[in-house]
Design a protein that fits this description.
40% helix, 6-stranded antiparallel beta sheet
Length: 141
């Protein structure tokens, strides 16, 4: 069953529910990386956005969004926004990223102050690319 149907606006899931639904070590790894590197906790949020409705997990540091994570059955989507300030550094490291990330970046139009990358996280290389992109957004201490 689709995530937004399983947990509607008035039925907030627990983090255990989210872990079970996604059922991916990549999910666990990314959350551990962010929590340890930035010393922040996830924020559970509901969105009625037609693009990706339902409960999602946001990570913010000092008011700046690191990423938003969207549960999917067996994987998850990570939204990472590459703003004006991050474009030069992102384009410098892009050749070392997976072909998937390179193509996604190239084919994502610039809008609302950045490139809004909706990344399907399905393998370790993509996970590593996301960690690199998040570090470009905000360098951990």
């Amino acid at each position: 069953m689709e995530w937004y149907k399983l947990y509607g606006e008035n039925k907030e899931p627990s983090f255990k529910n989210i872990d079970k639904y996604i059922n991916s070590e990549l999910w666990v790894s990314l959350n551990e990386f962010i929590k340890e590197a930035y010393r922040i906790s996830p924020i559970l949020s509901y969105s009625s956005c037609s693009g990706q409705p339902g409960w999602n997990i946001k990570y913010k540091k000092s008011g700046k969004s690191l990423c938003t994570l969207y549960p999917m059955e067996g994987f998850f989507i990570a939204l990472v926004v590459i703003g004006n300030k991050e474009i030069p550094e992102t384009e410098m490291i892009l050749p070392s990223c997976s072909k998937y990330i390179q193509d996604l970046y190239k084919n994502t139009p610039f809008s609302l102050g950045g490139k809004w990358l909706m990344i399907n996280v399905k393998n370790k290389k993509i996970l590593e690319d996301i960690e690199t992109l998040v570090k470009i957004r905000v360098m951990p201490k």
